[in-house]
Amino acid sequence: MPKITYITHDGKEHSVEAEIGTTVMENAIKNSVPGIEAECGGACACATCHVYVDEAWREKTGSPEIMEEDMLDFAWEPQAGSRLSCQIRVTADLDGLVVRVPEKQA
């Protein structure tokens, strides 16, 4: 299973084994990663699963679709690499993925 590392705003790393086909958000919730709230349950209807994808992984995670881009307008301190973790599907190519969790969610 691919490994995902979530780095919280205080620098703590939370590494999890993620099942292929799930989302980065689902794995964060399942493993109680602090800072990922996912209030809408993964429906791309809020910005409470916002993460920053490390630059080395941006090509593999892809670019946000229009609906996700619209929701990112509501995210706390969006920046290059901002994504909603509910919109990133886990694939074998994402083994080793690193995402950073913002200090707070919108």
Helix and strand composition category: alpha+beta
- The CATH class name reads Alpha Beta
Give the DSSP E fraction (strand runs of 2 or more residues): 15-25%
Through-space gap between termini: 31 Å
Please tally the β strands and state the result.
5
Question: From the 3D coordinates, which CATH architecture would you assign?
Answer: Roll
Shape: globular
Poorly predicted tracts of residues: none
Radius of gyration: 12 Å
Q: What does the average pLDDT come to?
A: 96
- For the record, the count of structural domains works out to 1
* H-E order: EEHEHHEE
Written account of the structure:
This protein has 106 residues and is of the alpha+beta class. The protein has a single domain (3-100), classed as Ubiquitin-like (UB roll) (Roll), CATH 3.10.20. The chain is built from three helices and five strands, in the order E-E-H-E-H-H-E-E. The protein has a five-stranded mixed sheet. A hairpin with a 5-residue loop joins strand 1 (3-7) and strand 2. The longest helix has 7 residues, at 24-30. The radius of gyration is 12 Å and the shape is globular. It starts with a strand and ends in a 6-residue tail after the last strand. The model has no long low-confidence stretch (mean pLDDT 96).
